Structure formats: structure tokens, C-alpha cells
């Protein structure tokens, strides 16, 4: 059932990109994207330093296929500011409308409200979406190994470099990780959620992170909901996290984030 949803998401993205191309041709988008290079905030640097502290990518997520509505009416600008005050290293903003109720307006509102680098969290299946992200002033995009061919992963990583945008390359298995290593990914998101079943197991990132090379940043993603989860990961050598649902649903996201970081 969950695997069907992933197939539906990817099919939907193909239709969405085709429709967008008719409204804004790639040539126009390329020009827009290239004018934004000077505005970029470094997602990589925000995660890399300080090396000895917990660094969290705080997510703006209204809904999801596994949970339905999470916080459908959230205020992206207010939440971005709360996350910044709480010590977030970066933001992740869902820009998919059909399955996550997000959109580019959320990304723009969140980025304009704070000084943090922002990840466009979406299902990238075309170079068009990377130009789009750059034109919207995103600082990073998500590349999910599971939905890309080796050639696409390599081409899209190269395009990110060319546009001065960072890539968070998402893996879930050892073979995904090998593919991420092959393209020289610098920031690797290890998704604890199996996108084929939606089962979430925080041991996934802890065991796969041991296989990363020196200089690669491991980010544990999905299912992190307490300081205890963070401490367990710290013992396994992971200190970077991508956290959505537990932050968005917290009574006080700023305080909760500070507590997760260990402040
Ligand atoms: O969250 C889902 O249900 C989902 C389903 C299919 C593909 C992706 C999905 N989530 C995207 C994410 O990667 C998470 O939003 C992110 O890792 C944060 O997870 P969480 O802290 O568990 O909200």
C-alpha cells in the first residue's frame, strides 16, 4: 500500500513538472535560477559546524501520506522564527501540495522570515525542479536515491553544484548508500522511514551511519521525537537530525527544539 503511494507520488510529480513546463519554460526558469546565486545560504556549512554540537534541520510539514493532517493550518513564517530562536541549524519545507499540503509559498514565507538555510523537501525527478528550487531561493534540495536512476542522481548532483545549491541525498539501505557515495554526496540523510512500508525504525540511521566516509555528514531523518532518541544517536556517532512531526505538533516548538538540542 505504502509502495503504491510512492509510485503515485512519483507519477504525480511527472505530471506536475510537465504542467509547470508549459507555464514557465525551462529557459525562463534557468535565467531566474542563475540570478539567485548570490542570495544562497550554505546548508552544508550550517550542518558542518559547530562539529561538537547537535545540529537540527527543523521541518515545516502540514500533512503526510502516513499520518494525514499533522498541522494543516500552521504558520510557516511564525514557525520558522520559533525554530530559529530554538537553535535550528536549517529548515526543511515540504513543497509538495498533493500529498503533504505544502507549496512554494511555504518555502518563501519561511525563508523570508529568518536567516536559516532552507531545504526544498520534495520528490525531485527532473532537473526542472532543481532550477525551480534555485529560482525560489531554496538553499538545498532533497535527492532520494530510491526514486532516481544512477544517471539521474549523478546529473542532478552535478546540476546542484553548478547552481551553488546543496543536495541532501537520502538513503535507506546499504545499496542506496553505495549510490550516494558514488556521486560524492557530502550530506547524506539516512531515512529511518521505509518509504515502501512507512515503518519507522530509528536503528536504521544508527547502523548505516557507521558505513559513511570521513568528511560526509550523516543526518538521521524521521521518527525522532525525544531527547532520549537524540542521546541514543549521539552514542552511535550521529549528531545531525531532520525532524518534522514531533516539532510541528509540540506545544512550544521553540522550547522543544532547545530541549532536543540539549540546552
Ligand atoms: O512522512 C511521510 O509519511 C512520508 C511518506 C512518504 C514519503 C516521505 C514521507 N516523509 C518525508 C520525510 O522524509 C519526513 O517528513 C522527514 O524525514 C521528517 O520525518 P518525521 O520527523 O517523522 O516527521
UniProtKB/TrEMBL annotation:
PANTHER family, alphabetized: INDOLE-3-GLYCEROL-PHOSPHATE SYNTHASE, TRYPTOPHAN BIOSYNTHESIS PROTEIN
EC number(s) on file: 4.1.1.48
Catalytic activity: 1-(2-carboxyphenylamino)-1-deoxy-D-ribulose 5-phosphate + H(+) = (1S,2R)-1-C-(indol-3-yl)glycerol 3-phosphate + CO2 + H2O
Enzyme class (EC, first level): lyase
Highest taxon in the source lineage: Bacteria
Pathway: Amino-acid biosynthesis; L-tryptophan biosynthesis; L-tryptophan from chorismate: step 4/5
SUPFAM superfamilies for this protein: Ribulose-phoshate binding barrel
Ranges where the Indole-3-glycerol phosphate synthase domain occurs: 6-260
Protein name, per record: Indole-3-glycerol phosphate synthase
Annotated keywords: Amino-acid biosynthesis, Aromatic amino acid biosynthesis, Decarboxylase, Lyase, Tryptophan biosynthesis
Gene Ontology biological-process annotations: L-tryptophan biosynthetic process
One Gene Ontology MF term: indole-3-glycerol-phosphate synthase activity
Similarity annotation: Belongs to the TrpC family.
Organism: Desulfosalsimonas propionicica
Amino acid at each position: 500500500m505504502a509502495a503504491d503511494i510512492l509510485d503515485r507520488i512519483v507519477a504525480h510529480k511527472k505530471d506536475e513538472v510537465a504542467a509547470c513546463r508549459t507555464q514557465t519554460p525551462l529557459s525562463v526558469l534557468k535565467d531566474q535560477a542563475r540570478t539567485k546565486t548570490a542570495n544562497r545560504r550554505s546548508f552544508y556549512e550550517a550542518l558542518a559546524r559547530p562539529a561538537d554540537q547537535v545540529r537540527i534541520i527543523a521541518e515545516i510539514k502540514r500533512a503526510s501520506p502516513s499520518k494525514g493532517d499533522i498541522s494543516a493550518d500552521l504558520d510557516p513564517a511564525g514557525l520558522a522564527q520559533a525554530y530559529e530562536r530554538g537553535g535550528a541549524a536549517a529548515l526543511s519545507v515540504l513543497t509538495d501540495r498533493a500529498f503533504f499540503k505544502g507549496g512554494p509559498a511555504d518555502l518563501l514565507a519561511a525563508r523570508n522570515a529568518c536567516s536559516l538555510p532552507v531545504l526544498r523537501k520534495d520528490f525531485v525527478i527532473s532537473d526542472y525542479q532543481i532550477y525551480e528550487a534555485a529560482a525560489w531561493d531554496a538553499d538545498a534540495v532533497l535527492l532520494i536515491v530510491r526514486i532516481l536512476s544512477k544517471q539521474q542522481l549523478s546529473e542532478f548532483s552535478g546540476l546542484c553544484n553548478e547552481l551553488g545549491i546543496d543536495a541532501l541525498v537520502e538513503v535507506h539501505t546499504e545499496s542506496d548508500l553505495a549510490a550516494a557515495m558514488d556521486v560524492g554526496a557530502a550530506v547524506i540523510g539516512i531515512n529511518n522511514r521505509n518509504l515502501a512500508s512507512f515503518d519507522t525504525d530509528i536503528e536504521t540511521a544508527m547502523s548505516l551511519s557507521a558505513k559513511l566516509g570521513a568528511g560526509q555528514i550523516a543526518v538521521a531523518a524521521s521518527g525522532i521525537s525525544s531527547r532520549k532518541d537524540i542521546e541514543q544517536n549521539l552514542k552511535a556517532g550521529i549528531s545531525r537530525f531532520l525532524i518534522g512531526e514531533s516539532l510541528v505538533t509540540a506545544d512550544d516548538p521553540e522550547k522543544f527544539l532547545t530541549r532536543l538540542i540539549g540546552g
